[in-house]
């Protein structure tokens, strides 16, 4: 039965295009084929495809698969309603998985099975139709539900104690400092405190303090006026002012340089900000939540963190234990992630086998909840059956970067990765702007994205 969908195929292999030119018109009412991604922009405008079947490698690419990720981002940026199915060789499955995390509908491995290819493309077309037919109320509900990850408390005594404390302090204006290893869910806990507060109806403003360069710190946090410095072409409202009447979440506060800590302290004391290039202070009413994986007390003793700032942000302190100390939460969290990603990636996965359960519980999880979540996501994407088994998880013993992170020490690579991730988020995956902001070439950025699995 023919679908009403419109399919755009982008693949530089003439044999593949010839085969799909014969196959796809039997099932879809319009099919366009491109040999190069260079014409994608024009085709999105003129042909308006429902689904793009996108090859991940082209002849001009110097970094295998990364050009496909770039064009995926471009397609979603230009036409967010258009679904993308990635066409990839077996060796590039890891990149295809990353592509799905960035918004691809699914991926097909070459050589392909005709029935599966058509089925996936039809499912993608159906999703486009469903999205276009949704009411505003439905869309709003989905957006609200997916905006913030829900806090899972578990049944352990430590987390139960933290929960009781959160319920007491959330309605107050007390500043909160959340500590714990990387990946323990400090940002999720901050969002939960905000949700339970009197400010919860307004969005919480989040700042990764460690990812902001020193030269842009004041501008990003406090704002600037037009002409304050080169490239200041218009007034900019800083994060502090954006959070007025709401909550400001400063993540990685231990990474702020000492001389900038003084400026932050002054704003917190005065509860007003002065934009860069301006002389008029603007009052701000914020509730402050900070987080760090560093030992701030030791930093105070070493003179690398201001003692007065430490006491200003540390009215209430909450320390999240690592996942290896919360083993009762591992399987419930795994089930939550399985349900989430099975729905997101339309996979039939419903749980894990008994052997996989034992593996998950016995693993050390140096990367904590974030590592568990990423492992479940990848396993669900690649799964064929309903239950995930041991071989679906590729658990490393103890990565050096995570081990160092758990001790609050950072390598240059960790700083670099965080900066790249922050830039990708800031520019919504636009690699041209990301590369420019990081002052690196496009090929170098491709290599870094592959290195850090971003």
Layout of helices and strands, plus pairs?
Elements: E1 3-10, H1 14-23, E2 28-34, H2 40-46, E3 51-55, H3 66-78, E4 83-89, H4 93-101, E5 106-110, H5 114-133, H6 136-147, H7 157-169, E6 176-179, H8 186-196, E7 205-208, H9 214-222, E8 223-224, E9 236-237, H10 239-242, E10 247-251, H11 258-270, E11 272-273, E12 282-283, E13 287-292, H12 296-302, H13 307-313, E14 316-319, H14 330-344, E15 351-352, H15 354-362, H16 368-382, E16 387-388, H17 400-406, H18 412-426, H19 431-438, H20 442-451
Parallel strand pairs: 1-2, 1-3, 3-4, 4-5, 6-13, 6-14, 7-10, 10-13, 15-16
Antiparallel strand pairs: 8-9, 11-12
Helix pairs in contact: 3-4, 14-16, 18-19
* Average pLDDT over all residues: 85
The oligomeric status of these chains comes to single chain
Total number of domains: 3
Number of strands: 16
Q: How much helicity do the residues have?
A: 40-55%
The CATH architecture of the largest domain would be 3-Layer(aba) Sandwich
Shape: globular
**Given the helix and strand composition, which structural class is it?**
alpha/beta
If strands are numbered along the chain, what order do they take across the biggest sheet? 2-1-3-4-5
GO molecular function: ATP binding; sequence-specific DNA binding
Keywords: ATP-binding, Nucleotide-binding, Phosphoprotein, Transcription, Transcription regulation
Organism: Phocaeicola coprophilus DSM 18228 = JCM 13818
Pfam families: AAA_lid_14, HTH_8, Response_reg, Sigma54_activat
